[in-house]
């Protein structure tokens, strides 16, 4: 944890750390939270709808719900994400809304999304999301924002194998702020989910952002008891990052916790609290 009394050192160190986050997680904007899925390999994951990962997973939810998520990167409050999403199944579509915030007083990013998803037949899910991204520039220029989109699908190949695909910002949106442009990533994600003997899920995923190298991710999820799930995984792009997590469900309430470890910057913790109506 970093403790600072003046704003200038805070801006300097947060800027350095933010640049490091951008290097390690160049596949997504800083404001997009991670997931509690093992290895963050979530594009084919269907047991929960995680905001800003694959909108198609919304169609797999059988009840309405609300989720709060806190992503504390490197145990530094200024680098944390606070996210919330709600969802409602209807007769024809599943609808949902998401919001996430990153930053502190001198620098902030926010992302607001409206999502629509549908189950098409027994084997295909489709999700489409409209996102509004905004960034705090300065006390004089205040905020600037832009619209973009996120689309995804999940396909059940067999009783035990599923494939997931998503694309974020296919319209190449950016924020024009004077002489500097804030570019949003254009990211393609492809992954699989393999269910092993009904108790273990093995997830694999590759991500490609048009200006960055390929990121890989893999994770295992083991339903140890009816109320307890254990997760193990790893991901990498320029470095190897292991993950370890667990989830507990009691009645309609679920709590998930995951830890990532970077050899350069240390531990990140993510917690999610979910309630199903």
Q: Any overview of this molecule?
A:
This protein is mostly beta strands. The chain has one domain (7-276): Outer membrane protein transport protein (OMPP1/FadL/TodX) (Porin). Helix content is 6%, strand content 58%. The chain is built from one helix and 16 strands. The strands form two sheets. Strands 1-2-3-4-5-6-7-10-11-12-13-14-15-16 form a 14-stranded antiparallel β-barrel. Strand 2 and strand 3 (94-104) form a beta hairpin. The longest helix has 18 residues, at 7-24. The protein is globular. It starts with 6 loop residues before the first helix and ends with a strand. 38% of the residues are buried.
Keywords for this structure?
single chain, 277 residues, mainly beta, Porin, 14-stranded antiparallel barrel, 6% helix
At the fourth level of CATH, the homologous superfamily is: Outer membrane protein transport protein (OMPP1/FadL/TodX)
- Number of helices, where a helix is a run of at least 4 consecutive DSSP H or I residues: 1
Poorly predicted runs are 1-27
**What structural category characterises the helix and strand content?**
mainly beta
| Assembly annotation | single chain
Q: Portion of residues in helices?
A: under 10%
**What is the strand content?**
over 45%
| CATH fold annotation | Porin
Strand order of the largest sheet: 1-2-3-4-5-6-7-10-11-12-13-14-15-16
State the CATH architecture.
Beta Barrel
The main pleated sheet reads as: 14 strands, antiparallel, barrel
Distance between termini? 37 Å
Tally of strands: 16
Q: Please write the CATH class name.
A: Mainly Beta
């Amino acid at each position: 944890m970093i403790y600072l009394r003046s704003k200038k050192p805070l801006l300097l160190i947060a800027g350095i750390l933010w640049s490091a986050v951008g290097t390690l997680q160049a596949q997504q904007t800083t404001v997009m939270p991670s997931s509690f899925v093992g290895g963050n390999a979530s594009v084919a994951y269907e047991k929960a709808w995680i905001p800003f990962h694959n909108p198609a997973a919304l169609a797999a939810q059988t009840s309405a719900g609300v989720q709060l998520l806190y992503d504390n990167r490197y145990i530094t409050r200024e680098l944390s994400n606070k996210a919330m999403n709600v969802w409602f199944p209807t007769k024809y579509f599943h609808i949902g809304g998401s919001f996430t915030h990153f930053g502190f007083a001198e620098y902030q990013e926010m992302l607001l999304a409206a999502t629509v998803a549908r189950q098409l037949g027994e084997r295909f899910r489709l999700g489409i999301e409209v996102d509004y991204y905004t960034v705090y520039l300065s006390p004089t220029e205040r905020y600037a924002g832009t619209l973009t989109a996120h689309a995804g699908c999940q396909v059940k190949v067999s009783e035990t194998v599923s494939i997931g695909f998503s694309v974020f910002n296919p319209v190449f949106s950016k924020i024009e702020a004077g002489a500097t442009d804030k570019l949003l990533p254009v990211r393609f994600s492809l992954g699989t989910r393999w269910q092993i003997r009904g108790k273990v899920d093995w997830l694999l995923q590759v991500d490609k952002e048009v200006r960055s190298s390929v990121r890989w991710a893999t994770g295992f999820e083991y339903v140890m008891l009816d109320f307890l799930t254990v997760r193990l995984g790893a991901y990498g792009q320029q470095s190897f990052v292991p993950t370890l997590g667990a989830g507990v469900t009691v009645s309609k309430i679920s709590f998930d916790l995951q830890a990532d470890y970077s050899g350069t910057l240390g531990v990140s913790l993510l917690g999610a609290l979910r309630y199903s109506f």
